[in-house]
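QA checklist item 7 of 12: single-chain prediction sanity check.
[x] sequence parsed
[x] length recorded as 77
[x] structure emitted
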Amino acid sequence: MDASFRRANLEILGNTDGFLHAHVWPRFEWEPTDLVRRPVWLYPRDRWTDKQYALGPQHDPLRTAIGDELDRLRSAN
């Protein structure tokens, strides 16, 4: 785990999807002080498009673990 991890924000917004979905946003100590306590969508646009912040192969194990756990939970019900 990243030692600078601060917390996780959960966000459930009303939208046009016909099902409930949520966003989980990790928050870190290194975030700019003017943004760290505000919604993540207030980050400058370049933070959303800069390749250095994009998901990539290094995230595959986490993505797989999340998918496996969701499959496990679904089959348990």
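[x] summary fact logged: Residues 5-76 form one domain.
[ ] second reviewer sign-off
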